[in-house]
Amino acid sequence: MTSPLIAPSVLAADFANLQRDVEMLNASEADWIHVDIMDGVFVPNISFGLPVTAAINKHAQKPLDVHLMIVQPERYLAAFRDAGAEVLTVHYEACPHLHRTIQQIKDLGAKAGVALNPHTPVSVLEDIIADLDLVLIMSVNPGFGGQKFIERTYERVRQAAALIEKQGSQAVIEIDGGVNQVNAPLLYHAGARALVAGSFVFNAQDPVETIAQLKKVW
């Protein structure tokens, strides 16, 4: 067993000091930098888009883990790849032609992920899981940071882990929403191997130490 990948979400960073916060993540034990893209249509909030992603990438020394909470993500995949995305995750609920969209991501040379909203059954991934690098399970309703963790997430992680094993997939399970030092070890033991943490990291007195502690949960 290995320690989890930690992907702090810059949605919780100080946007007026984004370069400073990205440099803090560079100096930390964070593995990825999680970038939440929201369009105000798929989710009831707007975050930031391509120019800010490119600006983050300019200073980042860690891979950008870009989570597209947008409608018609296939229209923007190449642009986000050009802006620095190394992992591109789309929502199952936003992709009527999911297999084609995943192929598009792979053709761009990025890792391909699919995110599931809390109400979407894990079983919908049965026919695509073998092609995925990442399964992102939302542990809050997407759209806003700082929400309360949904307890049923543990069972969903176990279901995803069983599906991955059954299909011989190499996909990593990532959790996004309400991750903290209490639920992180439970998520890890259920099968999660990547943890997104936003306000828990950026609101901490010592974000670098908080990231270091999350790396030790296994």
UniProtKB/TrEMBL annotation:
Pathway: Carbohydrate degradation
Binding positions (a divalent metal cation): H34, D36, H67, D176
Presence of the UniProt keyword Manganese in the record: yes
Cofactors demanded by this protein: Fe(2+); a divalent metal cation; Co(2+); Mn(2+)
Active site: D36, D176
Molecular function GO terms recorded: D-ribulose-phosphate 3-epimerase activity; metal ion binding
EC number(s) reported in the record: 5.1.3.1
Single GO biological process annotation from the record: pentose catabolic process
Leading EC class: isomerase
Binding site residues for substrate: S9, H67, G143, F144, G145, G146, D176, G177, G178, G198, S199
Alphabetized Gene3D superfamilies for the sequence: Aldolase class I
Entry annotated with the keyword Metal-binding: yes
Keyword terms of this UniProt record: Carbohydrate metabolism, Cobalt, Isomerase, Manganese, Metal-binding, Zinc
Protein role: Catalyzes the reversible epimerization of D-ribulose 5-phosphate to D-xylulose 5-phosphate.
Protein name: Ribulose-phosphate 3-epimerase
Species whose genome carries this gene: Runella defluvii
Gene responsible for this protein: rpe
